[in-house]
Automatic annotation (TrEMBL):
Name of the protein this chain belongs to: DUF2207 domain-containing protein
Spans through the membrane: 244-263, 405-424, 436-459, 471-492, 498-519
Domain of life, per lineage: Bacteria
Signal peptide from the UniProt entry: 1-29
DUF2207 domain ranges (all copies): 33-223
UniProt-annotated stretches for the region Disordered: 631-655
Keywords: Membrane, Signal, Transmembrane, Transmembrane helix
Keyword ATP-binding: no
Biased composition (Gly residues): 638-655
Pfam entry (one): DUF2207_C
Length: 655
């Protein structure tokens, strides 16, 4: 019985000891690089053949399918210019047998994934062998040539229990001196031993302590001058072209895009020469006041409210509607059966004879029951009125007076996209460069479009408040573009690449020429000349008007006939002043007072006709623009050497 009890205690003790041993074994079996050895063979032409043997302890944590190896290829020359080393992968093996792999290239180097994505490794030791060729790694000095090589890299996430390297120089060449460094990047630790072999034809390095994660071994071996054939002038030129392939591709692409746009603009985007401008006493035939505004501004300036106001004034003087000024806006009211313009015998105009924009206004008012108040309460309806009016004008004038030449612009955008793709494909652009460039391109595009919009708004602004708002918007956009240009320059020089600057210039070229590509047709040019002549007439004072040959006699009918065009062209005030000046000297038969029958409500001062009419027409445009609801915003990397220096380097991990 006593023996049985002793046996049970012994068994329990053995079980505890065995469990502790297993736990200890598992605790000691952390993933690590147990051995990292690199054989670096130097050829006479400077090519390095590097064979890395990396033995790892895999436990299925990070190393599940295999490992990956990062090899940087960008280095900085003595001049400070960044250059790219050549690289050719020869073979990849695991435990002496070929192993599947894939190579991912970036602007900074390559990453070699070793292993099969469908095969998971059992825990254990695995030896990976990577052989590759690399060029432009020899450093040439006045007194010697040298191999400066980061053996392990400083970016491994695993400890390296032992690291070693053997440098084999070209036949008949012996090392003059050598050194090494250990530790994290920039440190100058000396935890290694080294020796020469084969009469200093080979130099061997080995660490004397384990390296922690992100620590590495870097070596430097000097050779007599001339041991390696230096690059020829042709080699230097070829390397220079290779180093700046992205910039060359970008500059070529920019020149192609710029050249195309200059050609296209010269062919279809250049405005026809203007004709002789002289005062005209009538509007161009078939051109309504709203259409005159649209043609002069080459589109709808200020969202088209001035053109819409001109259309309403035109309807009013034709006797089709009445404008009534209210305390909170303006009221438009249809005149049933209206067809004469005031008491001076204006010619009746039928609805079928109205221009398309004015007809759209009448149809809208008819749907509103014949009357409509332009105020904030009816803001959504004002938007509908504006949309239907603009659509009618654009449909009437599309491609007749102006050609947008969008096909030519689209070809330019296509060339630009091909240029960007060429830069990325042929230039080995880094992820960092893309991450910097794309946002700047997007911001540049948006800011440039905003600049065009603000400039157009400024040119079309009628009131002081609108002009102040446009100037503030212009100031803001110019600041954005200035900051963008500075950021592009800083990014270009800090990254050692002009890619960002080239890309932003491509964007700017597109925005600039797309804005210029539209041009008036021959008919549009002649109409523009006629409109300019009419505007010239409407701006002159009464005394100057009387000196013109063939000028029509002023009358209330003539004044009201051209008043909508004056509103459309932004010269209603001088036109009203001309009329007021005439009225003061008119005979009783011609009429000595003026009260427009198409305008009701407070605000019209018969003693200040120019101010009253200017106020009425200005209030109309202001009522339209101020009634529109505001858009909603969205919520919510021998001398001065250190660990990590030289060629090679990088790091790796498991996957």
């Amino acid at each position: 019985m006593r023996m049985t009890l002793i046996a049970r205690r012994v068994i329990c003790l053995l079980a505890v000891l065995l469990g502790c041993a297993l736990l200890s074994t598992r605790a000691d079996a952390n993933e690590a690089i147990t051995n990292f050895h690199a054989a670096i063979d130097v050829a006479e032409d400077g090519t390095l053949t590097v064979t890395e043997e990396i033995t790892v302890q895999a436990e299925g944590d990070q190393i599940r399918r295999g490992i990956y190896r990062d090899l940087p290829l960008i280095f900085e020359m003595a001049s400070g210019r960044k250059a790219r080393a050549g690289f050719e992968l020869v073979s990849v093996e695991r435990d002496g047998a070929s192993e599947p792999y894939r190579v991912e290239r970036s602007g900074d180097g390559v990453r070699i994934y070793i292993g099969d994505s469908d095969v998971f490794l059992e825990p254990g030791l695995y030896r990976y062998t990577i052989t590759y060729l690399t060029t432009r790694q020899i450093r040439f000095f006045d007194s010697h040539d040298e191999v400066y090589w980061n053996v392990t890299g400083n970016l491994w996430g695993f400890p390296i229990n032992k690291a070693s390297a053997q440098v084999t120089l070209p036949a008949g060449v012996t090392a003059s001196r050598w050194d090494g460094y250990t530790g994290a990047y920039g440190q100058t630790g000396k935890d290694f031993r080294s020796e020469s072999r084969s009469g200093s034809h080979q130099v061997y390095f080995e660490t004397t302590r384990p390296l922690a994660p992100r620590q590495g071994l870097t070596i430097v071996v000097a050779m007599p001058k001339g041991a390696v054939v230096p690059p020829t002038e042709a080699d230097e030129i070829g390397w220079l072209l290779s180093d700046y392939s992205a910039e060359i591709a970008g500059a070529f692409g920019l020149l192609v895009v710029l050249g195309y746009y200059v050609f296209a603009w010269g062919r279809v985007g250049r405005d026809p020469p203007a004709g002789v401008i002289y005062p005209r006493f009538e509007a161009p035939e078939g051109i309504s006041p709203a259409l005159a505004s649209y043609i002069e501004d080459r589109g709808f300036a200020g969202q088209g409210w001035t053109a819409l106001s001109a259309a309403c004034i035109s309807l009013a003087v034709k006797g089709k509607l009445v404008l009534e000024q209210l305390s909170d806006g303006l009221r438009l009211e249809l005149v049933q059966g209206g067809g004469t313009a005031g008491p001076w015998g204006g010619k009746p105009v039928s609805a079928d004879e109205l221009p398309s924009g004015e007809a759209a206004v009448l149809r809208f008012l008819d749907r509103q029951g014949g009357a409509f108040s332009v105020n904030k309460d009816n803001g959504p309806s004002v938007v509908l009125l504006g949309n239907s009016f603009r659509s009618a004008i654009e449909k009437e004038s599309r491609q007749r007076y102006f050609k947008s030449n969008l096909v030519f612009s689209a070809i330019g955008v296509l060339f630009s996209l091909l240029a960007v793709v060429g830069i990325i494909n042929f230039g080995d652009v880094s992820g960092d460069e893309i991450a910097i460039t794309l946002p700047l391109m997007i911001i540049g595009t948006v800011a440039s479009c905003m600049l065009i919009t603000v400039v157009n708004s400024l040119s079309g602004s009628r009131s002081l408040l609108q002009r102040v708002g446009s100037i503030m918007g212009l100031f803001f956009v110019l600041i954005v573009l200035l900051v963008l240009g500075g950021a592009s320059a800083v990014a270009a020089f800090s990254e050692g690449s002009l890619l960002t600057l080239v890309a932003v210039l491509i964007v700017a070229t597109n925005v600039f020429f797309i804005a210029l590509m539209g041009a008036p047709t021959a008919l549009g040019r002649s109409v523009l000349d006629a409109i300019e002549g009419l505007k010239l007439y409407l701006e002159v004072a009464e005394a100057e008007r009387m000196n013109m040959e063939g000028v029509p006699r002023m009358s209330p009918d003539h004044f009201e006939h051209l008043l909508p065009y004056a509103v459309a062209l932004g010269v209603e005030k001088p036109w009203a002043e001309t009329f007021a000046s005439w009225l003061r000297t008119a005979t009783p038969a011609e009429g000595t007072s003026y009260q427009p029958r198409w305008s009701r409500g407070a605000g019209f001062d018969a003693h200040n006709i120019a101010g009253a009419l200017s106020g009425t027409t200005g209030a109309l445009a202001s009522s339209f623009s101020s009634s529109v609801p505001a858009p909603k915003s969205s919520s919510s990397g021998f001398s001065g050497g250190s660990s990590g220096g030289g060629g090679g380097g990088g790091g790796g991990g498991g996957w």
